[in-house]
């Protein structure tokens, strides 16, 4: 029996089917996910990522990431230490941060697998075009919560599910490495479960702020 990758509910129903895969929606948290039998192997997934040509010197890529980075930067000072979680083969947000005197670590499962970084805590974490690739959604968010200091910000960039009708024609699902699709309702559920404050920043950017202690 399939369980929701985020809340582990059994209440899944068919949301969409195309020539490649089925997509199930959770009745509890509204996450849309791809069943395990349709997911790529780790080897095939990495081979796909190896073809990405993201470059920190590419002005267009910087503008794209700027939709997350610039609103976040307004909240930061050089005293803040951050992590780019899932930075890919060409880390760029950490380069942009360094240019304004802010230090960031880079972590990526395939390209910067520095596991010790996952035991640290940070003032802010960026996760741009990453969350939709991770099968263990519950484990990922629990890990991120543990790495966030009280009052810290988690900046997430991912395109959001708008409706079942829109999903049917959505280019985002054509990427076979995309296996979990979040809507605003899903992010609201996450915020409630983890006691985070949710802010919708842009059409594909949300910020979560961890509650202060006391």
Structural overview:
It holds the Pfam family Methyltransf_23. Keywords: Methyltransferase, Transferase. This is Class I SAM-dependent methyltransferase. GO terms for molecular function: methyltransferase activity. It is built from six helices and ten strands, in the order E-E-E-H-H-E-H-E-E-H-E-H-E-H-E-E. With 214 residues, the chain is an alpha/beta fold. A six-stranded mixed beta sheet has the order 5-4-6-7-10-9, sandwiched between helices. The chain has a four-stranded antiparallel beta sheet with strand order 1-2-3-8. The radius of gyration is 17 Å and the shape is globular. It starts with 11 loop residues before the first strand and ends with a strand.
What key phrases describe this protein's structure?
214 residues, alpha/beta, six-stranded mixed sheet, four-stranded antiparallel sheet, 26% helix
Produce a short descriptive summary.
This protein has six helices and ten strands, in the order βββααβαββαβαβαββ. With 214 residues, the chain is α/β, with parallel strands linked by helices.
Topology overview:
Layout: E1 12-17, E2 22-26, E3 32-33, H1 42-49, H2 59-73, E4 81-85, H3 93-98, E5 103-107, E6 122-128, H4 137-147, E7 148-157, H5 164-168, E8 180-181, H6 184-194, E9 196-202, E10 205-210
Parallel strand pairs: 4-5, 4-6, 6-7
Antiparallel strand pairs: 1-2, 2-3, 3-8, 7-10, 9-10
